[in-house]
Amino acid sequence: MITLGLNCRFCNKPLTNIFVDLGITPLSNSFLKKEIIHNSEKKYPLCTYVCSSCFLVQLPEFEKPENIFEEYAYFSSYSSTWLHHAQDYVNMMIKKFGFDEKKLVIEIASNDGYLLQFFKEKDIPILGIEPAVNVAKVAKEKGIPTITKFFSADTAEELKSEDKKADLIIGNNVLAHVPNLNDFVKGLKILLKPTGIITLEFPHLLQLIQKNQFDTIYHEHFSYFSLITAKKIFSFHGLTIFDVEEIPTHGGSLRIYVKHSEYEGISVNQTVNILLEKEKLFGLENISTYTDFIKNVERVKKKLYEFFKDSKNSGKKIVCYGAAAKGNTLLNYCGIGNNFIDYVVDQNPYKQGLYLPGTHIPIKSPDEIQNTKPDYLVIIPWNLKDEIIEQMKYIRDWGGKFVIPIPEVSIL
């Protein structure tokens, strides 16, 4: 145990325990143009800590969100799996809670309109809040009303003064991206109508630990949540988690349903207590569960490096699929660069022609795979492996194989 001089972003208690230290890396979405790949890159510590009081796993704020998100390379609509997930969610919420043309739906971090478009098709009033100017532009071109700014308590107050309080607030994979956590949750409380509902999705810390998903740790993710910790945070701000679902997205996520604590029209589902008990049995209230995680991370790092080294020594050609943020954490931490990997492919034309941060591996179109016929295709966004394997199954025509790096190195 060491004294770090850092305090928890939720409860302000001193942070005295390291969860996992992944070294010094560039921002995982700071892709490089060819003309600057030989320039020095900004790099920051990628060291996460766990609060011994509230068990929030967190990364200190080394870079302001404005410098990470205002020009962003991630567009949700490029994944068909994610689009299906969004459409299924919209249909489920309409059926379950009866949202109609009289209700206002607001999505925070609405990206390129990937989800709100399905509410729009049902003539349900919508509003997106998206800080990335380039991404919000795409949403607006689709006819999705979008405010280009970061969500905060002040943003919520502005919308409230314009009589735009929400019947449904959606936040998919945004809670982890917020350094000022208390201000964000306070804003949710302000923006929600008295009988309204909030749903938030975020990667489940239990799954991260259980399945060695250390590559989901990067500078854009300031916090990593268990239900135990989320319940404490929302309760502190007068909000109650009344239902929870374990969903498969991003390698295992939680979808929580939240209401005003004073609203008695919805009762708390037993699913909440069941999952809280599951987390306690796993040990998420024991500091040793967190501090022991590094042993599994180091084991995966060793095996992955050995695979790349042995494959290269055998004359195998290796290519990666997906210029994903998690891949940049994985490759930089494991010391795997363009000495092992010929190139990485990505469907997003915004990334093609650029280079991965840190490793300087070139990003190309998936069409390149047919031209070079690699022996191994490493699937970096392993959470989308089924979609990618189906899309790229033709590599088997020349004996190509798929490699999944997490939770263990596996060759398919």
UniProtKB/TrEMBL annotation:
SUPFAM superfamilies: S-adenosyl-L-methionine-dependent methyltransferases. Pfam families: Methyltransf_13, Methyltransf_14, Methyltransf_23. Residues 248-407 form the C-methyltransferase domain. Transmembrane segments: none annotated. One of its GO terms (molecular function) is methyltransferase activity. The keyword tRNA-binding does not apply. This is C-methyltransferase. It comes from Candidatus Nitrosarchaeum limnium BG20.
